[in-house]
Design goal:
The protein is built from 9 helices and 13 strands. It is an alpha/beta fold.
């Protein structure tokens, strides 16, 4: 397999000066913690803005996007280097096809990730998807079942299409809060998470607007309706997750295929043998010895002994 091509991260220069300064500051913070490489896995349903978000983070059109073309089935990894720091972002196909989990796409993702380390998971959905359903739960379950529920310790939920006017006159922050709460409930349920399973008991949620209509502030940074400069804020939250103290996920065969069924129950074999010895083998041995003892005496002797006992 050919080595991954790592290019200079020139796209960072396309950001507003204030955004560049913040990004370089965050990269410096990671390097201070001896994090020189960061691998981000981007997953979710199709058409939610995964590839657009990858392009926005890198600052280049590194993944082709077409509204008239279906997603490919194979993941793509983009690697960029800046000042001794390497950023890897893995874009993946959508996990739903025809209302069901796309097993081909999921297996391709697992094969692609084999022997790689996942530092951060970006679970992408849309802010303007006003409700959650069983498909959301199935996608979350598929991720947890494939890579272990510990991956949600390294997760960040990203809601795209954030440049919207909430329905029914709801305040923007209130709508964001309700949408986040509904989605996080499905994530916890689909992944089978308890409060103690997730670092800090909460998965961060970040808003993203990848389109050209995104507003800008006086510093020429892309901002959301709530005034947050979202590119630097997203990278800041990625940094927080990367440094939250939980372990990165190493994707090996055991993780994605589960334990070897031939290994199941081996720990109980000595106990089973011991039980068989005392409750099966030993009684059988006693019965055999008794039968042998009886058969070793001639029939006439046993008959006479029986008659003698009756006389007395």
């Amino acid at each position: 397999m050919a080595a991954q091509i790592v290019k200079e991260w020139s796209g960072i220069n396309s950001f507003a000066p204030a955004t560049q300064t913040k990004l370089l500051e965050l990269l410096g913070k990671l390097k201070q913690e001896n994090v020189n490489t960061l691998t981000i896995l981007v997953m979710g349903k199709g058409g939610v803005g995964k590839s657009s978000t990858v392009n926005s983070i890198v600052g280049e059109r590194v993944v082709t996007i077409s509204p008239f073309q279906s997603e490919g089935l194979r993941p793509v990894m983009i690697s960029r280097s800046r000042a001794g720091f390497t950023l890897n972002i893995i874009d993946t196909p959508g996990l739903i096809e025809g209302g069901y989990i796309n097993d081909i796409a999921l297996n391709n993702i697992k094969s692609f990730l084999l022997n790689k380390i996942i530092d951060v998971l970006l679970y992408v959905d849309r802010l303007d998807a006003y409700r959650v359903d069983n498909l959301d739960k199935e996608v979350v379950s598929a991720i947890a079942n494939s890579f272990g529920k510990r991956i949600w310790n390294r997760a960040l939920v990203v809601l795209t299409h954030a440049q919207l006017s909430p329905p029914d006159g709801l305040p923007y922050d209130e709508f964001f809060s309700k949408r986040s709460e509904a989605l996080l409930k499905v994530v916890r349920s689909g992944a089978g998470l308890k409060k103690h399973d997730v670092q800090g008991s909460s998965i961060p949620v970040v808003l993203v607007e990848n389109s050209g209509r995104c507003n800008k502030n006086e510093s020429d940074e892309k901002v959301l309706p709530n005034g947050i400069a979202w590119i630097s804020y997203l990278v800041e939250k990625i940094t927080v997750v990367a440094l939250n103290g939980s372990k990165s996920i190493f994707v090996d065969t055991k993780l994605i295929e589960g334990p070897n069924p031939n290994e199941r129950g081996k720990a109980f074999i000595p106990l089973i043998l011991l039980i068989q010895f005392f409750f099966a083998i030993k009684p059988i041995e006693r019965a055999i010895r008794t039968d042998i003892a009886r058969e070793s005496r001639p029939a006439w002797e046993m008959r006479d002994a029986s008659l003698a006992s009756r006389k007395f």
